[in-house]
């Protein structure tokens, strides 16, 4: 049977896929819960309307990498505008500050090394994923790209080790 020799490789790829998807979604969920909670606390302190609804929306939309925050803020702003335009502008300012706090303090520690993918590749993966598959493409593109990145990285390390061993054997 042709696939017999590929059992270890298949298991290796599936193990990396499982690890990357698991880490990404667990840490993305933790980060979204933290963001939603902080949003709710701030909205209650500043007496913004629809605090619970908008905070839950922002928490769920934070699951979508990069663009999720904009989706949640846009819908939240429209909801708050039904009460007051000034409150809506204050809400946008509050969320911008909250996003800066999240991006500089929370995200690096919570999601930081969960995928092992450099930032440039994350942005590229999200762009390609959204173009090919919309929101679902955005969700699976980062862990998918992280899987490919890890496989290539492991392959390079294996080849470098083989070269080092070969050069040691030739020098004797």
From TrEMBL:
Keyword terms: Cell membrane, Membrane, Transmembrane, Transmembrane helix, Transport
Domain of life of the source: Bacteria
GO cellular component, one term: plasma membrane
UniProt keyword Cell membrane, yes or no: yes
Localization: Cell membrane
Membrane-crossing segments per the record: 24-43, 50-72, 78-98, 105-126, 132-152
InterPro entries: AI-2E-like
Keyword Cell membrane in record: yes
Bilayer disposition of the protein: Multi-pass membrane protein
GO BP annotations, alphabetical order: transmembrane transport
Entry's family note: Belongs to the autoinducer-2 exporter (AI-2E) (TC 2.A.86) family.
Protein name, per record: CpsX
Organism, as annotated: Streptococcus thermophilus
Gene: cpsX
């Amino acid at each position: 049977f042709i696939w017999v020799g590929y059992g270890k490789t298949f298991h290796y790829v599936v193990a990396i896929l499982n690890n990357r998807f698991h880490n990404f979604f667990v840490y993305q969920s933790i980060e979204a819960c933290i963001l939603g909670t902080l949003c709710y606390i701030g909205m209650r302190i500043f007496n913004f309307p629809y605090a619970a609804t908008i905070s839950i929306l922002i928490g769920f939309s934070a699951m979508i990498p990069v663009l999720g925050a904009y989706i949640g803020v846009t819908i939240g702003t429209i909801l708050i505008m039904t009460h007051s335009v000034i409150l809506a502008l204050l809400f946008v300012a509050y969320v911008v500050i909250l996003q800066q706090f999240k991006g500089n303090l929370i995200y690096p520690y919570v999601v930081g090394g969960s995928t092992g993918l450099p930032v440039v590749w994350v942005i590229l993966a999200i762009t390609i994923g959204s173009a090919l598959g919309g929101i679902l493409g955005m969700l699976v593109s980062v862990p998918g790209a992280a899987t490919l990145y890890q496989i290539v990285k492991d392959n390079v390390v294996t080849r470098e080790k083989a070269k080092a061993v070969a050069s040691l054997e030739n020098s004797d």
